[in-house]
Specification:
The longest helix is centred in the C-terminal third of the chain and has 16 residues. The chain has 576 residues and is α+β, with helices and mostly antiparallel strands. The N terminus is likely disordered. It is flat and about 85 Å long. It has 12 helices and 25 strands. A hairpin with a 5-residue loop joins strand 10 and strand 11. The strands form 6 sheets. Strands 17, 18, 20, 21, 23, 24 and 25 form a 7-stranded mixed β-sheet that branches.
Length: 576
């Protein structure tokens, strides 16, 4: 527990408040930053929802002479390298050109990456009908057609259903390709376990003094035990000052996060220490089912010290225990909520002359993207599926347009009246064009672009639209209007807006991290107002090795939590 908090004020602020369900938020205040930081330090990132896919098809081609086709569906995921990995197969439906398969397949939805699904249909020959489908050799079956899409294309539909046209793709080797191969309908349903949340009020009695000369400031940490035996923290209470009989605010545990009601949990009671090295008072191991029984018995359970397995007088009580179904990120998407992408690009002179290969803005004739282009693609390719019109506001800052003064927020498309561009390729074209039409200057000011983004988000909120906005700022240097930026961020923290800042190049970005409140300190404006929530994530861009998750994807993994924190803190519910 040594690295949860840094100092007494920041530590208490970070630990304090009702704990969050990591990756899913909670129904009360903002998430517990100390828990989020601790989980990230242990490698836990992102939103993982189990999705059940079911399938039906219509108008399939008849490949049998004396009867109709006997179709089977094979589902794959396609990696970034284009390699297909089989997820599973349906059963064979006999004599049908409009099959509805009974077998469903489960996949794990991850917000921060584009998950490309590929669906291949086969007519299974009669001689193989008695074999298990997983044993069938596909090259011995007749190919009926294929289709592909991103998983996010399915789950962003209001009914979570997407109908795809089947084609013959590369597998067809005939002289002519059939024009009509039928259609495939894919329905996605979120597994109910991801919506079930347990709320508990926990209390301890007769806690022992860890030091005669200091008071006891207790808090609880609840961890799940994974297969390897390692415990991963999933929830933390606030710190209660100088209390040997503390009753904490309710905690929320998501069933999906802990595995099941039977999964073992470790509940540890610590004494807060401003150094970050919190003293263990005692612990016990219980499942949610055990805790429910403990609540029903109206009895306490003795804490234990691992050293020597000493049973303590201190006891844990479960004063309240209830379960509820909580709206998930996917529920809001099904209810018509969208995530709108916005972009701001740093055109200050410190990037270097764009015509020279050592410039961060250099456009390589070979087509190799520079760091700015890569960051735009990695974020934009994910977020585009959550924006129905795919028209993205895009700005530049820190440059001098032709025959004009230095601008700290100019439209990337060169227009003086509107800031939107069409699609991710539209952004890439506008970025390349801007490099030819502006002179790099400075300094690096974030305030104007943040204010512009906040104005758009505020106008959308005032009009009652179901939208959440994400501003990506890509920069090569440290912001010079730090206080003005803080003021803009504190003001924007009340709006449906998150800001991702990606630092490119070799600059020292340590000062930039003050904008990212992951370490427990909320931003404060010049007039003393504190941000209502953390809306900024900053990360320096770096090259990733094969198989690694990029830092930009790690940034995106935080967005569903920020989205849900905003919606739930304002009691905004999805409408179906």
């Amino acid at each position: 527990m040594g690295n949860c908090c840094s100092d007494d004020r920041g530590g208490r602020a970070a630990i304090g408040g009702t704990p969050a369900v990591i990756g899913l938020g909670n129904g009360n205040d903002a998430p517990n930053d100390a828990v989020n930081l601790f989980l990230r330090s242990r490698g836990y990132h992102g939103l993982f929802s189990q999705i059940q896919l079911s399938f039906s098809a219509s108008g399939l081609r008849d490949r049998d002479v004396l009867s109709k086709s006997d179709p089977m569906l094979v589902v794959y995921t396609r990696g970034r390298d284009g390699v297909l990995k089989e997820v599973g197969r349906t059963e064979v439906v006999l004599n049908s050109l409009n099959p509805k398969w009974i077998n469903t397949l489960n996949v794990t939805y991850q917000f921060e990456i584009v998950q490309t699904m590929s669906f291949h249909l086969y007519d299974v020959d009669t001689q193989f009908h008695q074999m298990e489908v997983k044993m069938l050799k596909l090259e011995e079956q007749q190919f009926l057609g294929e289709a592909s899409c991103a998983l996010s294309e399915i789950i962003t539909k209001s009914n979570r259903s997407l109908t795809l046209d089947l084609t013959y793709g590369e597998e067809y080797t005939g002289l002519s390709r059939p024009q009509n191969c039928g259609r495939l309908a894919v329905l996605a349903e979120e597994c109910i376990s991801s919506k079930t949340t347990t709320e508990m009020t926990l209390r301890c009695s007769e806690l022992e003094h860890k030091n005669l000369f200091t008071r006891t400031d207790p808090f609880l940490v609840i961890s799940k035990i994974v297969e390897s035996g390692i415990s991963i923290p999933v929830c933390k209470t606030e710190v209660i000052r100088n209390d040997l009989k503390p009753t904490w605010k309710p905690v929320f545990l998501n069933i999906q996060q802990v595995g099941s009601k039977d999964s073992p949990l470790v509940i540890e009671c610590f004494n807060f220490n401003s150094s970050g090295k919190h003293d263990l008072i005692g612990r016990l191991e219980k499942s949610l089912l055990d805790l429910e029984k403990l609540h029903s018995s109206v009895k306490g359970e003795n804490l234990v010290l691992p050293t020597g397995n000493k049973v303590l007088k201190s006891q844990l009580f479960v004063d309240t225990f209830s379960e509820s179904t909580q709206h998930t990120f996917l529920d809001y998407l099904a209810g018509g909520f969208e995530i709108n992408f916005m972009l701001a690009v740093d055109f200050t002179a410190s990037n270097g002359n764009p015509r020279l290969p050592d410039s961060l803005h250099y456009i390589d004739p070979s087509g190799r993207p520079n760091a700015y282009q890569r960051a735009i693609l990695e974020v934009g390719e994910v977020l585009q599926f959550y924006d129905s019109d795919k028209r993205f506001p895009a700005w530049g800052f820190g440059a001098r347009p032709i025959d004009g003064p230095v601008s700290h927020c100019f439209n990337l498309n060169g227009s003086s009246t509107y800031c939107e561009v069409e699609g991710i390729q539209g952004i890439m074209m506008a970025y390349t064009s801007a490099l030819l039409n502006v002179s790099l200057a400075g300094p690096t000011l974030f305030g104007p672009v943040i204010s512009n983004a906040a104005q758009i988000a505020g106008q959308s909120l005032a009009n009652g639209r179901h939208r959440y906005f994400v501003l990506l700022i890509i920069t090569d240097g440290v912001v010079t209007d730090l206080q003005e930026t803080k003021d803009a961020l504190v003001k924007a923290s009340d709006l449906p807006l998150s800001i991702l800042i990606v630092g490119v190049g070799g600059a020292d970005f340590k000062e930039m991290e003050v904008l990212d409140a992951d370490k427990g300190e909320r931003l404060e404006s010049s007039n003393g107002r504190v941000a209502t929530r953390d809306i900024v994530q900053f990360v320096p861009f770096r090259d990733v090795q094969s198989g690694e998750i990029s830092v930009v994807q790690e940034l995106l993994a935080e967005l569903p939590t920020q989205f849900l924190t905003y919606m739930r803190s304002r009691e905004i519910k999805p409408s179906y």
